[in-house]
C-alpha cells in the first residue's frame, strides 16, 4: 500500500500504481479538496491499475479525519462513552460517506485502551475501561459493516500504555503478557470472535514478551493473533516510514521482516523513494489465502454520494452525530 502526492496523479504515480507489487493506495488530507475531486482521483487510480486495487484512508473522526469539507465531522472515539447509542450510527455514517466516493475502507476502529499516558492515542480510544471500549468499538464496526465496509482494528496488541509516539520514535511497553491479555487484548478478542476483517499491529516493543516490535514479530502475529485469537483476516503493517519501524533495518529489510512475521499487506507512505525500493525489492508472489483475505476488504457501496445525501437515514444520522457530539 502506497500513497500519492497531490490532488491528481502524475505519470510516474500511474506507473507505480500499475506495478505488480502494488495492491492498494492510501489517501491523506493533501489528496482531498472536495467530494467531487476525490471521486475523480479514486477513479483515476483505479484506471491506472491494470487489475484490482484497494483504496484506504484514516477516517476515525476527531483529530484523525482526512476528509472533512463535505463530510460529516465525526467526534473523537472517546466521546461515544457519553452516548453509547451513537457509536453504531457513527460507524455507518463514516463508512457510507466514504464508500459513496469510492473508498473501500477506513483504518478503523481504534481498539487501543486509553491508559492515560499516550498522547498519540488518547481520545482516539473509545475508553479507559476495556469492557466499554470493547462494547463501543463493536457497535462502531457493526455500523461500518451495515454500510458495506470492512473494519480494521488497530494497534495490536495495544498502543495505549506507552507515552511515546511511534511516528517519531520506538515506544517500549514493559508490561508482561498476562497484563496485556487481561486488558488490551479484550477488544481484539471480542471483535475477532465477531468476524473482524483486518488488524494493524503497533510499532511498539513489548520486551517482556518479544524483542521485536509487534508488526515484525512472528510471536505476536502468528502465535498470539493467528493461533491463540484465531484471527483469519488481513494483517496490515503500520507505515514502515514511521520511526518505530526504523530499528529493524532499511526499507526493503523492514518490508521483508514484516512479511516474514505474517503481514499480508505492507504500508510505505510519505516516502516515494522508499515505496519504489520496496516495490522492486520484494519478489512478486501469488498467495491465494492472502488474496482472499484482501478481497474481504473491498468496499460494497450501496449508492453514490448524491443518492446518499437524499436519504432520510443519512440526513437524520448526520445531524444527530453533529448535534450530540460536537
Automatic annotation (TrEMBL):
Q: Which residues form the Glycoside hydrolase family 3 N-terminal domain?
A: 8-291
Q: What is its main location?
A: cytoplasm
Q: Name one GO molecular function term.
A: beta-N-acetylhexosaminidase activity
EC number(s) recorded for this UniProt protein? 3.2.1.52
Record-linked InterPro entries? Beta_hexosaminidase_bac (IPR022956), GH (IPR017853), Glyco_hydro_3_AS (IPR019800), Glyco_hydro_3_N (IPR001764), Glyco_hydro_3_N_sf (IPR036962), NagZ_Beta-hexosaminidase (IPR050226)
Q: Where is this site: Important for catalytic activity?
A: 165
What reaction(s) does this enzyme catalyze?
A: Hydrolysis of terminal non-reducing N-acetyl-D-hexosamine residues in N-acetyl-beta-D-hexosaminides
The compartments listed are: Cytoplasm
Q: Could you say which residues bind substrate here?
A: 58, 66, 124, 154-155
Q: Spell out the Gene3D superfamilies in the cross-references.
A: Glycoside hydrolase, family 3, N-terminal domain
**Active site per the UniProt annotation:** 167, 238
Protein keywords: Cell cycle, Cell division, Cell shape, Cell wall biogenesis/degradation, Cytoplasm, Glycosidase, Hydrolase, Peptidoglycan synthesis
Pathway assigned to this chain's UniProt record: Cell wall biogenesis; peptidoglycan recycling
Listed PANTHER family: BETA-HEXOSAMINIDASE (PTHR30480:SF13), BETA-HEXOSAMINIDASE-RELATED (PTHR30480)
Instruction: Tell me, in a sentence or two, what this protein's role is.
Output: Plays a role in peptidoglycan recycling by cleaving the terminal beta-1,4-linked N-acetylglucosamine (GlcNAc) from peptide-linked peptidoglycan fragments, giving rise to free GlcNAc, anhydro-N-acetylmuramic acid and anhydro-N-acetylmuramic acid-linked peptides.
State the family named in the UniProt similarity comment for this chain.
Belongs to the glycosyl hydrolase 3 family. NagZ subfamily.
What is the protein name for this chain?
Beta-hexosaminidase
Q: Which organism is it from?
A: Candidatus Methylobacter oryzae
| Designated gene of the protein | nagZ
